Task: structure prediction
Amino acid sequence: MKPVLQVEGVSFAYSRRVRALDRVSFAVPAARFTALLGPNGAGKTTLMALVTHLFRPSEGTIRVAGLDLARHSCAALARMGVVFQRPTLDRDLSVRQNLRYAAALRGFDRREAEARINRTTERLGVQALLERPVRTLSGGQARRVELARALLHEPELLVLDEPTVGLDIDSRRAIVDHVHELCRSDGVAVLWTTHLIDEIREDDRVVVLHRGRVRAQGSPAELMQATGTPDLTAAFGRLTSD
Amino acid sequence: MTAAHLARALAGIVGRELLRFWKQRGRFFAALVRPLVWLFIFAAGFRSILGVSIQPPYQTYILYEVYITPGLVGMILLFSMMQNSLSMVYDREMGSMRFLLVSPLPRSFLLLAKLLGGVLVACLQAYIFLAIAWAWEVRPPALGYLAALPATILAGLMLGSLGLLLSSLIRQLENFAGVMNFVIFPMFFASSALYPLWRVKEASYLLWQIAMANPFTHAVELIRFALYLKLEPTALLVTLVWTAVFLAAALYGYNPERGFLAATGKGE
Result:
């Protein structure tokens, strides 16, 4: 089966002196949770900016559902839902107004938009928040609304850039559980960046990024075996020790 | 992507701008105070000092407040569109701009739609100001209000495109104070908004040359002539050309491959 996201030999530099990514390659299969694990400054957010077409790579290709992101960006982005590291909801508007705006950008008419908003918010347990202004939501509630917004158009690929930053433990756990459940039930391919190892489960795929390069990839068990370490924390420490 | 998709997205983006405008109406009233102070106080004070001779598009001697009204419409557009670009920098820092840019639509379309939303809000403000000015006895021909609409929209597009370009160049929100000092104030004061160009020429030939090179001068003249049911071809041409230049540079600035944001990592 073809991967939903395929990153091949991607490099990116902000300037001649600052090379943020160096020939990065990995794949995200359908119905799998793939964690892009790296310490701060590893290049995770830059990679997310490339995957979401905010920047273009200086070398290499990114394919979403087989579509070259550089040449078919609209069709590729239509298959993708994105949750950014920092909140991107409009704080002046209500949750419903934010979701209607997102639905309009995806081209849904009013009736279809309302049906999808109701369905998605109910599923994520945020339907009661629909009329609330975003500025009155807690961090965890806002994150779930952002997740609902990313799922409105039922994407094949869900990209989340450190979505649990700033959340309390319960909210973090709830978000991690939700997204794992989405993988299983809906077959969504997930790319989740993090530096928190406790967000990764044993059946996830892990891509370790350090100093702009992929250091290892595979299941947690494979990484432990390759590094000869007893757990993923130790494996990660060894892979990013230089 | 279909025409219906584009139309819904355009309605969504413009609707969001109008909604934000409605939610922040306190800021709108505050923005109206500035031109009204000029109209009610400054113009009244200078009425006897600044005589305005018969110059096209006017067919008779006019009061100074009549002269500066189109300039104040330009002022509203200038400040509103710069405010719009400030909100783009804010949106970029806060992330909502990023959400817009990952939509499955051409980036140029998204930026143009956002620009159009800002222009509509600015035009609404301009026409509310014109209604107040009407009550203050500044009364161009009734059809002039209609004729001035495309001129106001074009002037708004030019200033909005400049704002869009500036927003792609500005690294942080704090740097926006520089825009006020180096762009907005020089553009406004070195123009025909407050004084007729022939008076500027009498006072300083250099300032007149600067005013003639200033795109804002031509935007104001375009609105002034349109309000009195006349077309100023030079003003129209200059405004169109600058709109195209600013817009092309702004779209370049937001290009993910070649733009200023990609070159510096500001989009991050």
Notes: The mean pLDDT of chain B is 85. The interface with chain A takes residues 1-2, 4-6, 8-9, 11-13, 15-16, 19-20, 23-24, 94-96, 98-106, 256-257, 261-265, 267-268 of chain B (CB under 8 Å).
